[in-house]
Amino acid sequence: MKYEELLYKLNKIGIALSKERNYEVLLEKILTEARSFTRAEGGSLYIREGQELLFLVSQNDKLPENKGLRGLRIPLSSNSIAGYVGMTGELINIEDVYKLPEGTPYKINLSFDQENNYRTHSMLLVPLQESGDQPIGVLALINAKNIAGEATSFDPRYEPLVHSLASQAAVALRNAQLHGELKDAYLDTIFRLSRAAECRDMDTANHLERISLYSTILAEEMGMSPKFVENIRYASPMHDVGKLGVPDSILLKPGKLTDEEFNEMKNHTIFGAKILSDACSEIITISEEIALTHHERFNGKGYPNGISGEDIPLSGRIVALADVFDALASKRCYKDAWSIENVVAHIKKESGQHFDPKVVEAFENCLERILKVREEYSIHKAQSI
Ligand code: C2E
Ligand code: SIN
Ligand code: SIN
Ligand code: FE
Fold it and tell me: What is the pLDDT of residues 299-353, one digit of tens each?
């Protein structure tokens, strides 16, 4: 490839990396692109954690099934080449790692070759580094090939280009990390705010986790897209925020509600949708939809609008089942917990009435996973809240 073509390709890779928000996918992409760019048979990616490098991704055309040494930790030191690059930020291009010249400031760590019965010859190691900063990781490319597929060494012309690729990768990784942290902070906020809306005597944090996980499992079981599954996971915990607008005298009433009280209770759907309306975020918009429709019934006898069938958004139909399952299987201030047999019988009986038959079918097919979540997020394990 001509140098101009390489530059052009490098630029395209940089743009593609900057768009990837999923950290794991990004790690794989960086390695794939760097390998194809340099025609490397294999490669590994290490991310720095404190004074260690964590071995995260490994790819090798000769060892397609190899899981590498994922999880292995290497100290930042001259006892390994990667550790040395992580420590110093130097780029290292070696023709044959088994023939390191006298006086080389680092040692080679042969555990990868030994575990995989592999022979590493040439290596190109590049720090993942934004200019001037301490490396956030190390990219190691193994066994260069020429166009004919024969072993060769890494062309020194590649060095500045791979260096540039690595610094773009570092920026993209930092952005993906920030994105992940923002998401965690967002979720944490959602759970905290939703808790404020819930009945005080209830195992609320676990209740919200369970609704979120039940809805996620049901959506997965129904074959929905990963995007939909993720949206419902994050949006469903807010289904009852409208209870913030319901007075304690009703929300905490130990016994049965009067018709008037129940009518007021029903407004939690409309009130919740109002709180969540006009958001720019897709997730909040879906939570608005869920808040409004999670008490609609498939047969049209629900509230607040009495819509039926597929006029009820799928997210609302899914959360309706998740919510009732959890309400029945749990103790509430106004009722005891039912046995699981009775809960399951009730849900089956309500197929086509309260619930969408397709959601009920999915529920029956994934009951085992749902019961596992229920076990894991039970009141007994909620001591920290
Ligand atoms: P929730 O406690 O989270 O219950 C959610 C839904 O689960 C209920 O929606 C209902 O469809 C189902 N569910 C809960 N308990 C039972 C039950 O014992 N039998 C049957 N067949 N289904 C049950 P629903 O009825 O629209 O109620 C919405 C919310 O209104 C409830 O949320 C709860 O906060 C409140 N609520 C409903 N009934 C009473 C009551 O008698 N006393 C009090 N204090 N609150 C009530
Ligand atoms: C809830 O539905 O989240 C709690 C309401 C209750 O226990 O009455
Ligand atoms: C609850 O939601 O009140 C706790 C019951 C349970 O752990 O399932
Ligand atoms: Fe509700």
Answer: 999 999 999 999 999 999 999 999 999 999 998 888 899 999 999 999 999 999 9
Q: Give the predicted TM-score (pTM) of the model.
A: 0.64
Mark out the alpha helices in the chain (DSSP H runs): 3-19, 23-38, 81-88, 111-116, 158-196, 204-221, 226-235, 248-251, 259-275, 282-293, 314-329, 340-349, 357-365, 367-376
**Cα 111 to averaged position of ligand 1 atoms, centre (Å):** 60
What's the per-residue H, E or C state across 173-228? HHHHHHHHHHHHHHHHHHHHHHHHCCCCCCCHHHHHHHHHHHHHHHHHHCCCCHHH
Give CA–CA dist 211/63, Å, rounded.
42
CATH class of domain segment(s) 3-175: alpha beta
CATH topology of domain 199-384: Hypothetical protein af1432 (1.10.3210)
Question: 184 CA to middle of ligand 3, Å?
Answer: 24
Q: Is the CB of 324 under 6 A from ligand 1?
A: yes
Higher per-residue pLDDT: 210 or 6: 210
Average pLDDT, the chain: 89
Q: Where exactly are the structural domains of the chain?
A: 3-175, 199-384
Question: Which residues have CB under 6 Å of ligand 3?
Answer: 202-203, 207, 329-331, 374, 378-379
Which atom of ligand 2 is found nearest the CA of 252? 8
What is the residue whose two structure tokens read 């390191």? Answer: 100
